[in-house]
Amino acid sequence: MKKTFRLTLQILALVGLLVSMGFAPQAQEDANIQITQIDTTQFPRVTFFVSITDADGQPLAVDANRLIIMENGEQIPLDQIEGIGDVGPITTLLVMDVSDSMNSAGKLDSSKAAAHEFIGRMREEDQAGLVSFNTQVQTVQAITSDQDSLNSAIDSLKAGNNTAMYDALMTAVDQLQGVEGRKAIIVLTDGLDNSSSADADDVVNRIGEVGFSISTVGLGEPGVTTNDTGIDEPALQDLADRAGGVYGYAEDQEALTRLYETYAVSLQSEYQITYTSPAALRDGVNRSLSVALAPVGGGSPVVNQDSRYNPGGLVPEVAQPASWPFFAVVVIGLAALVLVPMVFTNWRSGSTTHVAGSNGHSARASTGKPMVKTRPRPRIKLK
Amino acid sequence: MSRYSRLYYYTLLGAIGGLIGWQISNVLGLSFTGYLYLNEVVVGGLIGFCIGALIGLSEGLAAKTPLYALRSGAITGLFGMIGGAIGLPIAEFGFQLLGGEAWTRALGWAIFGGLIGAGLGYSSGSQIWKPALGGAIGGAIGGALLELARTRLSDPLVGKAVGLGLVGAAVGALIALIVLLLSRAWLEVVTGKMKGTEFVLDKFIHANGPSAYVGSDALKADIVLPDPDIAPQHALLKGADTHMTLKDMSRQGTYINGRKIEMAKLENEQAIRMGNTQMVYHEKR
Prior knowledge:
- The structure holds 2 protein chains of 2 kinds.
- By secondary structure, chain A is an alpha+beta fold.
- In chain A, about 30% of the residues lie in helices and about 25% in strands.
- Chain A is globular and about 90 Å long.
- The C terminus of chain A is likely disordered.
- In chain B, about 55% of the residues lie in helices and about 15% in strands.
- In chain B, helix 1 packs antiparallel against helix 6.
- The radius of gyration of chain B is 20 Å and the shape is elongated.
- The two termini of chain B are about 25 Å apart.
- Chains A and B meet through helix 8 of A and helix 1, helix 2, helix 3, helix 4 and helix 6 of B.
């Protein structure tokens, strides 16, 4: 009996699978959607940036009207969307490894060439800065839109000493905190971080939930070797995933230059979306934010992984107006409790008199009897 | 006020302060300027001021000295305001940094309560860390209860009121409780209208720390005794790490165990008299 039942279940499952395959919608569009930065400083106006790429990680141009925005799973009506448009000016910090190992196999020169390529692709209104790191973190060029200064700064890089990537990222994050608009960090390294005081958690915490993105680049030999050199790919991949960026590996100068070129184009191809949140109160409760790409013809929409933001409100805002009667009743009630001991003490001292007894303890005389007034004697025995 | 009645009054007045803060927060919201953290500074400062001013006021009211009550309320309120104004934006930042989950609200409130406590500690006789610890524990409990009330009660307005009232009560209660449990030296008034009042002296114990003036002037003395036979600055209490000394600065005289002194080392349970006011010095070593 049991066997027959199990067999029936298996047949039903198989039929279900075949039916679902037969009636499956057209193949899903091969796109990857990622929310790279959310700005809630003007809440309930929320501005965020979306990157849409194809299977190879190349930017994908889509009709902006196909983007569907959802907050807490509910679609934002069109009239609450102020605009979907180009990304606008971008500020990028190039964070580059100048540890001793970069001197080998022409890696420093490859990095310089790739960085020059990135700077060359900057638009007029874009800005960039350069931070280098070995055991020391150095701001080689502060954030500027002057490409000549940036190129000179790149040419001035010299390599030596150990690697402190996370410390450099902390510096870079701090430099970007006050900058408005889309901002990103691209960090390049050829080895293990072996001398930072900070770690990946510190960096991710410093930028907040989706403050801006960090993309990572590994150059040279992947995998940790016996003498603790080589790229720590899992760490770079993890950092990029957590910081809304991507990880890329380059073996040589050509691949590295191509990678920087892709990053530059990707950043410039993002979409900036501004909408008014339907939940307009700063109640300190996290909201999920997702973007879907509506299918063309058939097929199912492509949806990004949920991102989150919090509008702030440790002391939460509430929808109801301030209730004065409730406030008055509770405060009067508590004030009455404050007064109870004072009234009680006054009543006691008004109806009784302390009389020093022979043993030094005070005795009470009732109000109905004649009271003996004496100067109160100190209750402390003097030594 | 004795250290035990301080526990009662601080709890109730802290709750009233929290409720006034609740009403201010309801009226102002958190979006009255475009800058969240600026709004947090204002709201945090006002909540801190309300809790601090009421707790400070209670010291003077118990002593039935209006000027002392106002002075104490203003000073404690000011430091509560500073603590709250610094505390709420920092707490909000931490709350955001840790992902804005329910448990981080309790942590945020702990930071907020701790900094209000530190502000109040600065103006009281206790060392700063004790009320700061009390405020932090109280804030954490209040924040957790706020989160519970917000999610469980049908009316979020009442939930917020319960939460903020509890935050104020818990901050007040734990400030008093920790001072009660951990205070090392205090002066108890045993006669007159301030009978039962205890002044915590922990802040003055250390040799390189501040000294305390004992006197009748609410503006010139740290320990104010409303007795016409006490000089505005009658005596000076000074710490020497291992003990405290009392130095007479008056023409009327200061007496320890019935003997007039100019300067004397204080010991536990010694009786001190200035004017018509009898006091007992207590210390726990």
